[in-house]
Amino acid sequence: MSEIDARLEKLETTIAYQDETIEELNKAVTDLWRELEATRRDLSKLTDQLRVVEAHPALAPQDEPPPPHY
Question: For residues 15 and 8, what is the distance between their CA atoms, to the nearest angstrom?
């Protein structure tokens, strides 16, 4: 095998490994993007719930009616 053939084979092998790595990284990025979107949706829901709670605050402890056993 000539030196050029050996170098060409090495380059082809390197490219094949790089293609595989790129595919794995693409899948990881896609999975993380989905997780990020789900987290954003959850955060938005929690923010909405917090706004509702803040708009209708609970009574202060001294203003709460006593429990039924009193």
Answer: 11
